[in-house]
Structures are given as C-alpha cells and as structure tokens.
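lol so apparently i was supposed to do this last week
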Amino acid sequence: MKDANLQLVTIESRKTSQIRFHLNGEELDVSFAPYKTLLEVLREDLNLTGTKHGCELGECGACAVLVDGKAVLSCLVLALECGGKNVLTVEGLGADGKLHPLQDAFADLGAAQCGYCTPGILVTAKALLDHTPSPNRDQIREALSGNLCRCTGYLQIFEAVEAAILKIAEPRQSETAEQAAK
Ligand code: FES
Ligand code: FES
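anyway here it is w/ FE2/S2 (inorganic) cluster bound
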C-alpha cells in the first residue's frame, strides 16, 4: 500500500505542465508530464480511452482525433501544443444523448468488427464530411487511407460512410422543405 501511495505521489509530481483547451465542447484545464503526447494525456490523465493506442509511430490511424476540425494522429502531437485548441474525440461525436449519424451507420452496417480502429475512422470520416458533405467512394477511400483496419472490413466501412452521408442530409432536406413551406 505504501508503495502504491509513493508511486501515485511520484506520478503526480511529474505533472508540471498545464494547458487550457476545449475538449468535446467543454473548456478544461489539465496537468500532465511535459513529455506526454496528446494520446497519452487523453487516455492516462483524462481517462478518455475511446481513442486507441496502436503503433505510436503515425502508421495505423487508431489514435486519430480532431484538432480544430482537422484529423491528426494524437500519438505524434505533444499535449503541450494543444493549449487553446478545440479537440474532439470519439466520446464527443454524439450529441443530446444520440449517436452521430456515422456511429449509427457503422452499427447498422457492421462496419465495426473488433472495433479497435473504429474511433479513429469515425473522427477522420467526420472531418471529411464536415468539409466535403458528399464525397465519392474514391474521396472516402483517400481520406481513410491512413486508418488501418486489421479486420480488413473496408467495404463495410466505406458503405457506412456513404450511408451516413444520407442520414446527415435527410434532416437538412426536411428543414429546408419546412422553411420553404412557411
Ligand atoms: S497509434 Fe498513432 S498512428 Fe498508430
Ligand atoms: S474493426 Fe478491427 S481493426 Fe478495424
């Protein structure tokens, strides 16, 4: 017990860096050891374990998150670089207790198999659809080319992104129709 307490004190005393940033829509201060990557701070200091730890070499895409709307590999970004930025992880994708249309489509179409790669793919696909609302198959393939799926279920993944495009467009179309009817 004494050893565990000592270990905790040692870990806490290494937290000499601090940033304030927006994480999944909330402003937040976090303290951490200065050498830590964004991935490590998310998982170890903030207990957000949705973002996965894969190769740590920038090769697998499992650690992808959005920083200021752009997909980045959080294993290659120092947390210290994220002060004042907007970070979105898979935990922040849904809103008002509902899944994001991408999450819905992935569940409907079996696009998440073991699911290890899924959080990185979901946020990368969100970045794509935010900037290009109706991408074609080649654009989806290109956007997700840095996200490796060891289960090799790429076809379902591409189809799920295409299904999400329709799910996102439907409410927009009915809003436009409602406004036109007023
Ligand atoms: S863990 Fe970051 S790219 Fe693999
Ligand atoms: S679903 Fe298993 S690695 Fe992609």
